[in-house]
Design goal:
By secondary structure, this protein is α+β, with helices and mostly antiparallel strands. Helix content is 38%, strand content 20%. The longest helix has 20 residues, at 240-259. Bound molecules: zinc ion (ZN).
Length: 501
């Protein structure tokens, strides 16, 4: 019987036991599906969710005698990501055959890169400043998919169907050094990488659809030990949350095993999101099990130094640079800068609005506020994205310009927003045609304030007796009387003055 007290896991990845503390060591391999038009070695288009085997040809079906042709766009996207990770890009590298038998791999080998990866020695910096080493990133083709019919998963299924639509999809496998120390950090690493691939437009970053797949090599060792423990590879995590949970579970399992006198074995384990556990799938193959040899049907890939320099010079702005521009140049607070950086679409929209208002810097912060505030809230409620709306950056600039010039107040702007988002009307035209201009005239506002106070004597009494929260009520009454058109600041000032009399 296991009498060991249960170990506890800290967010730092340190696991405390009565016999001492363990640390978690994780290296991550991420398969990034490159969003090219066609597959890596044939002309079939990439697809997700189409009818099975619609996107196949003799090459990706593995017919004998066919020849693969390397997709240039895949190389460009791989190099783009490699450069953004600060990798060294090989000017000459080759492809290799990696042999294994599985029904979703018709050739019984995968074209991959073994000892000459396209990209090597990079880094990825996390939000907390931790720098994670990237060992290598190599190009390879994806396998197809098996659909197990008749039961949940492979176990107990009646039969399996092969869908080769995905076979031959270009992947860049990004391999980190074992630099990660907790499930939380693995999640952060994946989120940062996802942000980067979306920003570079090399992958859609959808974990749920398998566009980015993460295998975590997890091991544990006593704090202070210098040797790594035996690692197990954990697969099948399809969300950021499941990556964190899987790594935490696996580290805990290994510590419990070691503490009860057992030994961690090198194996591949499958994460089950429903049960929150990992189960053994198979013993981990060693590299020599794959009998790698150079792919005889493809010449070595040669990249010209000039072309590489051009690619480097034309890299788009990276998330980290965008964040710094928003915080340092525009002066946005951390929260807003983060949201605009994490959401590529929102950030691009913001940049388009910035370009229209280069000469009016006072508009920049209000535009950011509207985007991450009311507009995002509306999009979340309606379950839409910005591209689904009719509010162009120039219409948003028009709205914010009206606000900043005090032509309208924020109450009117908020009222108009849903209409602008769905109809794409000009805010200025709407304000003019409906007479929604802000009432800034002090004497007109004074008269309104006086009317509201005269109509609510009990509330005035209560306010003067100390219920100052009633200010909101008075403001609301004046706004109601003016359909939201009163200049809020002036009106509040007048209310305070009158109520102090
Ligand atoms: Zn094909």
């Amino acid at each position: 019987m296991n009498t060991i007290a249960p170990a506890t896991i800290a967010p730092t990845g340190i696991i405390h036991t009565p016999n001492g503390d363990y640390e978690t060591i994780i290296g991550v391999e991420v398969h990034v599906q490159l969003n090219t038009t066609t597959k890596l070695f044939c002309g079939d288009t990439l697809s997700f969710g189409d009818a099975p085997n619609d996107h196949t040809c003799p090459i990706c079906l593995g017919y004998p005698g066919v020849l693969p042709v390397l997709n240039q766009q895949a190389v460009e996207k791989a190099v783009t990501l490699g450069l953004a990770l600060g990798c060294t890009i090989a000017t000459v590298c080759k492809f290799d055959r990696k042999h294994y038998f599985y029904p979703d791999l018709p050739k019984a080998y995968q074209i991959s890169q073994f000892d000459e990866p396209l990209c090597s020695n990079g880094t990825l910096t996390l939000a907390n400043g931790r720098v994670v080493g990237i060992q290598r990133a190599h190009l390879e083709e994806d396998a197809g998919k098996l659909n197990h019919v008749g039961a949940e998963g492979l176990a107990g299924s009646l039969y399996s169907l092969v869908d080769l639509n995905r076979a031959g999809t270009p992947l860049l496998e990004v391999v980190s050094h074992p630099d990660l120390r907790s499930g939380e950090e693995c999640k952060e690493y994946m989120a940062t990488l996802r942000n980067l691939v979306r920003c570079l437009n090399v992958c859609d970053g959808n974990l749920e659809e398998g566009s980015m797949r993460c295998d975590a090599n997890v091991s544990v060792r006593k704090v202070g030990a210098t040797q790594y423990g035996t690692r197990a590879e954990v697969k099948n995590m399809n969300s950021l949350r499941s990556i964190q949970r899987a790594v935490e579970y696996e580290a805990q399992r290994q510590v419990d095993l070691v503490e009860s006198g057992g030994k961690v074995v090198q194996e591949t384990r499958l994460w089950n999101d429903a049960t929150g556990t990992t189960i053994s799938m198979r013993g981990k193959e060693a590299a020599n099990d794959y009998r790698y040899f150079p792919e005889p049907d493809l010449p070595p890939l040669r990249l010209s130094v000039t072309w590489l320099e051009d690619m480097k010079a034309n890299l788009p702005e990276l998330p980290k640079q965008r964040y710094e521009r928003y915080t340092q140049t525009i002066g946005l607070p951390d929260f807003e800068a983060n949201l605009l950086t994490e959401n590529q679409e929102l950030g691009d929209y913001f940049d388009a609005a910035l370009a229209l208002t280069a000469d009016n810097k006072a508009l920049h912060k209000p535009i950011a506020n509207w985007l991450v505030g009311d507009i995002t809230a509306w999009l979340n409620t309606e379950k839409l994205s910005l591209t689904d709306t009719k509010l162009t950056p120039s219409l948003l600039v028009e709205l914010v310009t009206l606000l900043e010039a005090q032509t309208i107040g924020s109450a009117v702007a908020k009222q108009l927003l849903p209409e602008l988002l769905t109809d794409g009307a000009s805010p200025k035209a709407l304000v003019d045609s409906r007479g929604l201009g802000q009432i800034n005239d002090t004497s007109a506002l004074e008269a309104l304030v006086a009317q509201v106070l005269a109509a609510n004597p009990a509330e005035v009494e209560a306010y003067k007796g100390g219920k100052t929260k009633l200010m909101g009520f008075f403001v609301g009454q004046v706004m109601k009387a003016t359909q939201g058109k009163a200049n809020a600041a002036t009106m509040t000032e007048l209310l305070q003055k009158k109520l102090a009399e």
